[in-house]
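Researcher: Let's do a round of design. I'm pasting the structure tokens now; please hold your answer until I've finished.
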């Protein structure tokens, strides 16, 4: 059986010389992995973190690892791919989703929210250095948590005040808040601790170290 679907790429794993496994969010299936031929004619850009793809899925009742074909980019994401800072932030966002979302979790509404975040991030021409903080806060809300000042207090330490102000601001105001790079990194670490606790998962996000160097 062949079915159409939309995917957000989160991570990839090479399996031997001839195959690549894409770990994705699927609009129909939630968090799911698919296999593609390493010799696929699809551009390598399709396999980068947060790529938005229209695909055809070849369903196989004998295997949980279904194959993809006829891949096409839903959006080129030129700003995200051409900007080293945005590229690093996209790696962080995709790694968080990869580690938080368990196999089979997620639905169409969550997929649409994630796809919207990718497009919004790609569209920003300036004032995007704190976008990953907004993303973490809103991700918590999408998953059913309420990261307000009281909830964050056990995790925030000396950063409770700036985090509280960030939580209470609308997104446009939050993105304009003047923050030092070390403060952004510390606040991101706090939000990851909060998210890991409530999602009951391990969130040792390696790409946070890259953001520390950039910011």
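Researcher: That's everything. Go ahead.
Model: Designed sequence:
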């Amino acid at each position: 059986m062949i079915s159409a679907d939309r995917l957000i790429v989160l991570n990839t794993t090479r399996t031997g010389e001839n195959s690549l496994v894409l770990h994705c969010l699927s609009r129909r299936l939630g968090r799911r992995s698919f296999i593609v031929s390493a010799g696929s004619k699809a551009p390598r850009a399709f396999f980068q973190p947060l790529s938005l793809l229209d695909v055809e899925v070849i369903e196989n009742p004998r295997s949980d690892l279904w194959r993809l074909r006829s891949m096409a980019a839903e959006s080129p994401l030129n700003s995200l791919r051409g900007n080293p800072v945005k590229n690093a932030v996209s790696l962080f966002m995709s790694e968080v989703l990869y580690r938080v979302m368990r196999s089979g979790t997620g639905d169409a509404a969550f997929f649409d929210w994630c796809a919207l975040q990718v497009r919004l991030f790609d569209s920003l021409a300036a004032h995007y250095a704190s976008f990953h903080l907004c993303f973490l806060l809103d991700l918590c809300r999408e998953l059913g948590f309420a990261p307000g000042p009281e909830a964050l207090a056990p995790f925030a330490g000396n950063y409770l005040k700036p985090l509280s102000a960030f939580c209470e601001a609308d997104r446009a105001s939050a993105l304009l808040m003047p923050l030092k790079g070390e403060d952004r990194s510390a606040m991101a670490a706090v939000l990851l601790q909060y998210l890991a606790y409530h999602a009951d998962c391990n969130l040792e996000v390696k790409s946070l170290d890259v953001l520390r160097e950039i910011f």
